[in-house]
Amino acid sequence: MRYITKTDLRIVARNSGILMIGIGIMCLIPLIFDLIYFEFDIISFVTPGAISIILGFFCMFYFEDVENKKIRLKHGMIISSFAWLWASIIGGIVFTLATNIPLLDGVFESMSALTGTGITMFENVEILPHSLLFFRAFEQWIGGLGVVVMVIGVLTKPGSVSSKLYQSEARDERIKPSIKTTLEKTLQIYVIYTVAGIILYLLAGMPVFDSICNTLHIVSTGGMGIKNANMGFYHDDVIYFISIILMILGATSFLVHYKVIKTRGKSLINDLQFKIIITVIAGVTLMLYLVSNIYPMDLLFTVVSAITTTGASVADPLTMASWPSFVIICLMCLMLTGGSNGSTVGAIKLVRMITYFKGIYRHIREILSPEGRIVPVKLHGHPIPEKSIAQAGNFITLYMMFIMFTWALFCLFGYDPFRSLFAAMTLQGNNGLELGIINHTLHPVLKLVSLFDMWTGRIEIYPVLITLRAGFEIFKR
Q1: CA–CA gap between residue 227 and residue 127 (Å, rounded)
Q2: What is the DSSP annotation of 415-471?
Q3: What CA–CA distance (Å, rounded) separates 181 from 265?
Q4: E-strand spans in 308-383?
Q5: How far is Cα 249 from Cα 114, in angstroms, rounded to an integer?
Q6: In terms of CB atoms within 10 Å, which end of the chain has fewer, N or C?
Q7: For 43, how many CA atoms within 13 A lie in the half-sphere containing its CB?
Q8: Which helix (H) or strand (E) element contains residue 247?
Q9: What Rg value do the Cα atoms of the chain yield, rounded?
Q10: What is the pTM of this model?
Q11: pLDDT computed for residue 158 by the predictor
């Protein structure tokens, strides 16, 4: 049976054109800093940007006949998968043109920034031009909300296209009945927190450029800093504390943020996912402090960075690698979990973990209960559909399978098993905390696998699998 027709491909191509235009525009924004700092590396940004914009307009006009065709979820998922990959390739070309690094490393850098993973291929980021440092931070900021979400929020009209593309990025929460309005409100909240972060960093004594770039990569839970020592460069507990607040805000659902003012803060206090995040941060930090001699602020910062999948650090990778194994294992568990659904975080996310464990507990109660009794499963007082429990279990199983495959491959290439497992988790969860094995010296095969992990991790696996299945069907013809 054929699941993908020529019409499907034309619908995908036409709607991908909109996203390609948005991605091209993204490449032109850093020219502001290129001109401010008299770096005049215009070609590195204009060339990839122009390619993307021109091809985008071509797709829109050449496939104009399917403009009014109904877009389905399968189309949205294929478009979403392509958009993230295309954005990474175009961004990778920018890095390659600007620094002459290999294209694979450039695409890795771009994918790492966009997906909020935050692992860099550059040995020394402090020698990079200001425009390129801003571009990395801007990619993280765009990717934090979502490449597709950001573009459709700005460039598209309300309707089924916005709705299906929104769903394709594993989002279902709505601030307003309209998806378009939801996206606009989400973007407003995101911009407000970004401006607030810049102001707070400035008040803490951070330079203007640093304040802008650090806010972009922290509030988006991206973690790819502009200093070789990441946030540890500043040696300032006030800056660390501001970063912790921004990371937690980024890891909290935008729906909860929207309701804060209306409920006078009650929505935040009553949100189960937020309460779990705060409780886990406090409990794990205290526990690890009691079993280690790590500086408390370093420990708190790293715990927050792990559960929010930010990956920003105050301790360098080799220092972290020397921490007690128990501490590293606890960080790995936090990296698996992630923060709230409907936020900027990666990993499995708390709502799936809660649903999954409630399903297990329900099964235990049903065995203990009188025969025939049905035990309901509820979240926030509302019943959880059986389908949602099954989907949570399926996703977690698939997620762990990807980690196991990457872990085995790193071990095959001779890396330490413990650090390899940490690397596999940080890649699949778009985390970025690292123990010193993922860098420009990585074998090309492992770089490609890492790219795939970051890509699938950010859009939650299924869109990529659906795209690959569609591609296989086309190739089979």
Answers
A1: 9
A2: --HHHHHHHHHHHHTT-----S--STTS-HHHHHHHHHHHHHHHTTSHHHHHHHHHH
A3: 22
A4: 378-379, 382-383
A5: 19
A6: N
A7: 4
A8: helix 237-250
A9: 22
A10: 0.92
A11: 47
Strand, coil or helix: 383: strand
Residue written as token pair 């420009």: 440
The length of the chain, given as a count of residues = 477
Query: DSSP letter string over 11-22?
Result: HHHHHHHHHHHH
- Token digits for 436? 């010193």
How distant, in Å, are the alpha carbons of 73, 139, 156, 471 from that of 467?
Answer: 12, 23, 23, 6
Distance CA 322, CA 318 (A): 7
Alpha carbon distance 461, 229 (integer Å): 32
- Give the pLDDT band (50/70/90) at residue 73: confident
Q: Which of 345, 87, 349 is nearest to 220 (CA)?
A: 345
Alpha-carbon distances, residue 37 vs 31, 32, 33, 56, 129 (angstroms): 10, 9, 6, 30, 9
pLDDT at 153: 53
- Quote the CA–CA distance of 431 and 317 in Å, as a whole number: 13
Taking Cα atoms as reference points, which of 454, 434, 403 lies closest to residue 116? 454
* pLDDT exceeds cutoff 80 at 476: no
Contacts of 448 (CB under 8 A, 6+ apart): 104
Q: What is the mean pLDDT of residues 295-305?
A: 95
Q: Look up residue 324 and give its two tokens.
A: 């007690």
Residue 385 gets which letter from DSSP? P
Beta strand 378-379 with 382-383: parallel, antiparallel or unpaired?
Answer: antiparallel
Report the Cα 397 to chain-centroid distance in Å: 20
Cβ-proximal residues to 371 (8 Å cutoff; 6+ apart), any chain? none
Query: What single-letter DSSP state applies at residue 64?
Result: G
State percent of the chain over pLDDT 90: 58
Residue with tokens 């977690």: 396
Does residue 357 carry a pLDDT above 70?
Answer: yes
Count other Cβ atoms within 10 Å, centred on residue 398. Answer: 15
